[in-house]
Amino acid sequence: MNPLKHIPALAPPRGVTPNFVHPQSQALMVVVTSIICLILITIISLLRFYTNLWIKKSVKADDIVCAFAVAGTIAYTSVVLSSVNVTGRHQWDVPILPNVPAFLQKMIIVIDLMYGPIAFCAKLSLFLLYYRLFSRHTWIRYLVYIGIGAIAAMYTAGTIVYGYLCLPRPGQSWIEAGLSARCHDQFIMISY
């Protein structure tokens, strides 16, 4: 038997004992919040697309990028919800080497890799909207260019570095890669 199955993934707060058998779960809150947000995103996005496609009969770059962001958000949330039984627990109630199916081991890293491109599309859509609305003002145009460059650099670098550090090396399992010290470098986690 592996001794890592009896060590919590995170040290519990003072006075709290890890519970690996029947842990408290936040899964219901994650599911309810995700569903409410998905409903709101869908309604607002459909109203935007309806207005631009059928009423104004005009599709701009910010609409297309917004559609990618919405599709990505739906995919991201679906992946999060598919792993909610594992990810909905406090880290001190999860053993450092849990009995996680191979599918969910991959999903934990895939969720993190999906975040960068999806967040980039959402923010790019806003910058393109600002550009379309305020491009007559030279200083706003330059700020939009700087903003697009900054988010492109940040999310591209973050996704590449996170993938390099956290994807498994030959002979390494997904869970070993996800738990490795190189994957949990605080600088990468904060900047990404």
What does this structure look like?
- The protein is an all-alpha fold and 192 residues long.
- The chain is built from 7 helices and no strands.
- The two termini are 36 Å apart.
* Total number of helices: 7
Q: Could you say which overall geometry the principal axes of the C-alpha atoms support?
A: elongated
Overall strand count = 0
Q: Kindly name the structural category.
A: mainly alpha
Question: How would a crystallographer describe the biggest sheet?
Answer: none
Topology pattern, helix = H, strand = E: HHHHHHH
**Low-pLDDT residue spans:** none
Strand content: under 5%
Mean pLDDT, as a whole number? 85
The share of residues in helices is 55-70%
What is the topological layout?
Layout: H1 27-55, H2 61-82, H3 84-87, H4 102-134, H5 138-166, H6 174-179, H7 186-191
Offer a quick outline of the entry:
The protein has 7 helices and no strands. The chain is mostly helical.
List the main descriptive attributes of the protein structure presented here:
67% helix; 7 helices; elongated; mainly alpha; 192 residues
